[in-house]
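RECORD TYPE: inverse folding
INPUT: structure tokens
STRUCTURE:
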């Protein structure tokens, strides 16, 4: 029963009950007087009015006085019992739920979120208990998410620190070699300087990845969307990748199966980041003497599908659904030795999804992996439509 209905019934009962009891008292008193008078004085019928006028009957009837006293006592008892009953009725509907919520608030204040609030009745306070329970669950989920986020942040810092230590150590070693005169020929000097430059670029990439991760976490990725020609954009990407593969003992293949040169709405810089992150991940775990990376572009109806295939180590079927999760590691020791922050593919997924696309992967352990993502084609709508 609703709390409003319960209070209304209680108010009406307390308001009307005295009148009902008083009416019953007057009616009972009249009936009692008539019966006593009939028995004591033998008065009946129309003689009552004249009889009451001719004598003070009540003053000469102690039985009536005693009846009035008993009736008043009964009325007071009925009203008292009614008030007590209403009090317990309202107490059961208000005090107990309020007490439960007070205890729940105390638990939350002390940081204890492992409890449950159950609504006993379907009234306003019951609904409040349900909402309080939803709030407790949300607070618990947020606390668990914060703990997980703190754990992941510490892991990220640990990974970045480990990966920065390696190029810094190398840079210090080569600089000391130059200072000590070890690089005593132009060829050695050129080799040392190039190594220092490459290690500095590696450090710059790690710092940029960390900076970009912080922007992802606060939803502040700077997007500059524009209309891009599919053929022109991916031709440029393929040319850059083929140049990067020189000297890495990797065969790069580019296959564009799109015929009518559709356009897409995308941020060219972030889309290049997606492709470079996937390719870098493929190179990192390439275990073949001769690596292969293929870039394929296909027309699939309203979408353009991009496929990046490699012949690397592959991913086990149990790990495949989680490869785009933040900080997920299929092999913690392998990731640590190969370097990397563990957020590259999560960045890729975030960018593709914010372009309105979708990304997934297929793989065979030991044979290689193929990453797929789709982007919707841009279609101009005529003015008359």
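DESIGNED SEQUENCE:
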């Amino acid at each position: 029963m609703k709390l409003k209905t319960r209070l209304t019934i209680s108010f009406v009962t307390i308001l009307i009950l005295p009148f009902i009891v008083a009416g019953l008292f007057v009616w009972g008193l009249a009936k009692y007087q008539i019966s006593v008078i009939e028995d004591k004085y033998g008065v009946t019928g129309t003689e009552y009015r004249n009889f009451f006028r001719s004598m003070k009957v009540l003053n000469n009837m102690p039985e009536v006085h005693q009846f009035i006293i008993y009736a008043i006592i009964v009325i007071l008892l009925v009203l008292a019992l009614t008030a007590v009953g209403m009090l317990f009725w309202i107490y059961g509907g208000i005090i107990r739920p309020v007490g439960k919520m007070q205890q729940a608030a105390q638990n939350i204040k002390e940081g204890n979120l492992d409890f449950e609030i159950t609504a006993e009745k379907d009234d306003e306070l019951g609904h409040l208990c349900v909402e309080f329970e939803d709030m407790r669950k949300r607070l618990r989920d947020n606390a668990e998410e914060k703990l997980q986020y703190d754990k992941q942040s510490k892991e990220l810092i640990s990974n970045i620190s480990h990966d920065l230590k390696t190029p810094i150590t190398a840079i210090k070693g080569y600089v000391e070699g130059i200072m000590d005169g070890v690089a005593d020929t132009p060829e050695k000097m050129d080799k040392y300087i190039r190594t220092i430059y490459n290690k500095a670029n590696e450090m710059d990439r790690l710092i940029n990845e960390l900076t970009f991760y912080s922007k992802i976490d606060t939803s502040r990725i700077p997007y500059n969307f524009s209309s891009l020609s599919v053929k022109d954009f991916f031709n440029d990407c393929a040319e850059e990748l083929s140049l990067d593969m020189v000297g890495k003992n990797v065969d790069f293949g580019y296959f564009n199966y799109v015929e009518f040169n559709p356009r897409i709405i995308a941020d060219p810089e972030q889309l290049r980041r997606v492709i470079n992150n996937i390719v870098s991940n493929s190179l990192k775990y390439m275990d073949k003497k001769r690596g292969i990376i293929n870039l394929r572009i296909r027309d699939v109806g309203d979408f353009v599908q991009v496929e990046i295939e490699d012949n690397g180590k592959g991913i086990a079927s149990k790990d495949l659904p989680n490869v785009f999760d933040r900080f997920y590691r299929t092999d913690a020791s392998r990731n640590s030795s190969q370097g990397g922050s563990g957020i590259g593919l999560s960045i890729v997924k975030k960018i593709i999804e914010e372009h309105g696309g979708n990304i997934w992967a297929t793989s065979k352990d030991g044979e290689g992996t193929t990453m797929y993502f789709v982007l919707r084609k841009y279609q101009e709508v005529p003015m008359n439509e």
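NOTES: The chain has a mean pLDDT of 78.
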